[in-house]
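tokens incoming
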């Protein structure tokens, strides 16, 4: 009762006054603490219980696993998994679901899939399917998420995907950027009971925006009832127009939103600033940025500052961007300096000192990202400063930083094909490279672009 009211202190007092503490009372206390945002306290009480004669049941162990997830503590989570196995609860479906979600959250996707595959298909419920599909989507394994959803439809015909399933698959489709796949997903949604679900339709808007089909995104928006269009829905479409640099459409939509009585939030302004950024509308973006706090009481976050630096730097206002950074009320993070460095690269070697300044700040914040070293090296190369290029290469070797292999993907008849630089493992690699040699005088993989690194 006390935990339901958010009163953790009173709940603990009641527990401390109990003479007989069985696993049920311990579980009530620990789960209440975890659910009310006190996972560390919950684990402290769990440790106390383990020193008593009370043995945990699988319900309590699920709570303990969730506590470690809240704390981002993978070693603790794996230790709790060992306790699950030792206690004989590793075949309990609720435990498997939690473990699958846990390993997916920590990026251990192979471990998550191994747990998923241990459960016979007839026992797999929609929550476990969701845990695995969502795990793939959130770890950037979009193709695997879509394929698993197709498998779910094939082998579990009597199981109806829920809103979480659909949103996870839509997220995967958004990552793949295939319009054909996006249309297939929308067709599925429109034939399901979730065709009017606000969260699902918002995800569809985001998906079409990322797939480059902003008109289809707007169609989904128009199909929604006016009362269903909350700030998240409006912001999703404004953000879609923003990504494509459609300043006029984003601004018009923003004005329509205000007329509809919907108050903008920080995400709305991020979409507006993105539109101004990609559309080169410097002064309009500057005006929107300052109106956030002045007109709406919204404190700009780091993403807003990074977007403004990118807007100024892209337009060639490098000094103005630098002074904007220096005047920031919060410490500039990597994305802010990265936007300035990118702007310096866009405008050649007009201000090498500023580029070096941005790069040094970046290296202090993130030493292992090869992309920033490559940008600086290419700037030096474009200015003919070859000794500096060699210096960047040497620094990368000393710090153990290596450039990631380039990768591209294409969707053909609903199947995603991925290609990595220098990789000949595709089944039709011989045909592909033969055709490339006919189309281009430059040997396949030989470059020919403007990068020197």
């Amino acid at each position: 009762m006390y935990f339901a009211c958010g009163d953790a202190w009173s709940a603990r007092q009641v527990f401390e006054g109990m003479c007989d503490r069985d696993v049920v009372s311990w579980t009530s206390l620990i789960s209440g603490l975890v659910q009310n945002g006190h996972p560390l306290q919950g684990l402290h009480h769990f440790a106390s219980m383990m020193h008593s004669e009370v043995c945990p049941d699988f319900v309590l162990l699920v709570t303990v696993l969730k506590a470690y997830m809240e704390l981002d503590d993978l070693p603790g989570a794996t230790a709790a998994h060992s306790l699950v196995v030792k206690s004989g609860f590793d075949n309990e479906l609720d435990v498997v679901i939690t473990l699958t979600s846990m390993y997916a959250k920590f990026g251990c996707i192979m471990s998550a899939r191994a747990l998923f595959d241990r459960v016979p298909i007839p026992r797999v419920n929609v929550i476990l399917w969701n845990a695995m599909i969502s795990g793939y989507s959130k770890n950037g394994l979009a193709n695997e998420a879509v394929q698993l959803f197709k498998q779910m439809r094939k082998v579990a015909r009597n199981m109806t995907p829920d809103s979480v399933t659909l949103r996870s698959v839509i997220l995967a489709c958004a990552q793949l950027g295939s319009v054909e796949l996006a249309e297939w997903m929308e067709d599925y949604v429109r034939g399901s009971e979730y065709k009017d679900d606000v969260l699902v339709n918002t995800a569809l808007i985001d998906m079409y925006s990322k797939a480059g089909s902003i008109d289809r995104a707007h169609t989904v928006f128009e199909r929604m009832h006016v009362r269903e269009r909350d700030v998240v829905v409006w912001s999703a479409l404004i953000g879609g127009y923003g990504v494509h640099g459609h300043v006029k459409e984003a601004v018009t939509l923003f004005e329509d939103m205000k007329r509809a009585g919907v108050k903008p939030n920080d995400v709305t302004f991020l979409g507006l600033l993105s539109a101004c950024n990609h559309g080169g509308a410097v002064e309009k973006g500057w005006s929107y940025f300052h109106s956030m706090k002045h007109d709406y009481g919204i404190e700009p976050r780091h993403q807003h500052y990074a977007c403004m630096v990118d807007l100024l730097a892209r337009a060639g206002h490098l000094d103005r961007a630098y002074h904007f950074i220096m005047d920031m009320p919060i410490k500039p993070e990597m994305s802010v300096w990265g936007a300035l460095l990118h702007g310096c690269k866009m405008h050649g070697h007009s201000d090498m000192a500023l580029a070096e300044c941005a790069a040094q700040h970046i290296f202090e914040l993130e030493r292992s990202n090869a992309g920033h070293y490559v940008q600086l090296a290419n700037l030096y190369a474009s200015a003919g400063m070859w000794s500096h290029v060699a210096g960047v290469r040497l620094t990368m070797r000393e710090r153990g930083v290596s450039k990631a292999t380039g990768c591209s993907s294409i969707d053909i008849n609903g199947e995603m094909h991925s290609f990595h630089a220098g990789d000949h493992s595709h089944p039709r690699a011989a045909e592909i490279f033969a055709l490339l040699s006919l189309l281009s005088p430059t040997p396949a993989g030989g470059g020919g672009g403007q990068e020197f690194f």
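note: Residues 301-401 form a domain with the Serine Threonine Protein Phosphatase 5, Tetratricopeptide repeat fold (CATH 1.25.40).
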